[in-house]
Amino acid sequence: MSDALPRRRFLQSAGAAAVWVPTTVKGYSAEEMRSRALDDELQVEVSKWELDTPALCVDLDALEANLRRMQEAVARNGIATRPHAKTHKCPQIARLQMESGSVGICAAKVSEAEVLLEHGLQSVLMTTPNVTPSKIQRAMRLRARHGGFIQATDSPENARDLSAAAVAAGITAEVVIDVDPGAHRTGIAPGRPALELAQLVDRLPGLRLAGMLCYDGGSQHVRGFQERRAQTLARLEPAVETRAMMLRTGLSTEIFSGGGTGTYNIDHANAGFTDVQAGSYVFMDAQYLAIGGATDPEVYSDFEPSLTILTTVLNSQHEGQVTTDAGTKACTLNQPWPIVKGEAGMTYRAGSDEFGTLRYDDPSRTYRAGDKLELIVSHCDPVVNLYDQMYAVRNDRVRAIWQIAARGKSV
Ligand SMILES: Cc1ncc(COP(=O)(O)O)c(C=O)c1O
Prior knowledge:
The chain is built from twelve helices and 19 strands. It is an alpha/beta fold. It has two domains: 160 residues, D-serine dehydratase-like domain (Lyase, Ornithine Decarboxylase, Chain A, domain 1, Beta Barrel), CATH 2.40.37; 222 residues, Alanine racemase (TIM Barrel), CATH 3.20.20.10. Strands 1, 2, 3, 12, 13, 14, 15, 16, 17, 18 and 19 form an eleven-stranded mixed beta sheet that branches. Strands 4-11-10-9-8-7-6-5 form an eight-stranded parallel beta sheet. The protein is globular, with a radius of gyration of 22 Å. It binds pyridoxal-5'-phosphate (PLP).
């Protein structure tokens, strides 16, 4: 996002201009807002511009449009979604995803899976293998309480440990094998090693084989749709062959999960692929906006940016810049930096712990201390993890307060 033109396109895609807010607005704290809510629903109308900042907001119209667009796309392509909750860590959003037609939800960590299942989500696939005795115990306890819990394994040793723990707990654990697309992050090598692992899982007394997953994270942010398509299909080819080997030997291939927001409209071209684990599509962010899509090579406009941070100007005493209250602790250090919504001439840097610096060469108007601005987040997952709650907003009015119940659940 270095040249001005794509940046302007970003901002256009980001929608309406910033709203001028008089400095006299109340600035409701999180506690005050919670006291106005009953079962998360707000009883009194409050404008989002009245919130104390930094505040994390999700625009309901944009969120719902993203859910709809994703479901329509996968339905057209004959596959399903199993969205990753590592993005939002929020049971309310997971429920909306299930209501929109998803077949289940993914979790990255056992603590995240616990939160989702304990909040009533019924089918949760944990995509990271559990390798320590304590995590394996937690996973078995979860499986004992929730029949819809599925976990990944990527080595014969781990599969044996899972099976022993399941037998000791008197249960059968449901397992998918995690196949490495070549990134060498997690996953077993495709082909014979993966097949043998699947055969082992199928034989072990405490396990039931439910299929496989292969997540190609390295392709999600490749710029240009054709480049992304070529790369991910090439990387998934060995996993597709592995699935065919499993099928030929009579093993379960009921799940072949993978993919994400960058490849959701490509993954179905992998034979036997069943569901996309996309996470970021619900919110979008500056990193994803930059990759370009099938119909728009400059801006990835398949989904709308729904997640924003409200920030307040603290100081405007220097020409061409203002200081705001949203720095690294509100925005993370990820880049590209957050995008100032509706202000094409402004660049934002969140590089200081407590402060953001906003520079402008072409402001639509000048800002004063107390004024508020709205930022499209840089990378949605780690930003969400900084907040206890997000405000669900429609037409700039706060409609509900959603707890980010799995916030900080990184164990
Ligand atoms: C295993 C796995 N699946 C799915 C996703 C979702 O990807 P995205 O947020 O790019 O849609 C991630 C994200 O890192 C992941 O690690």
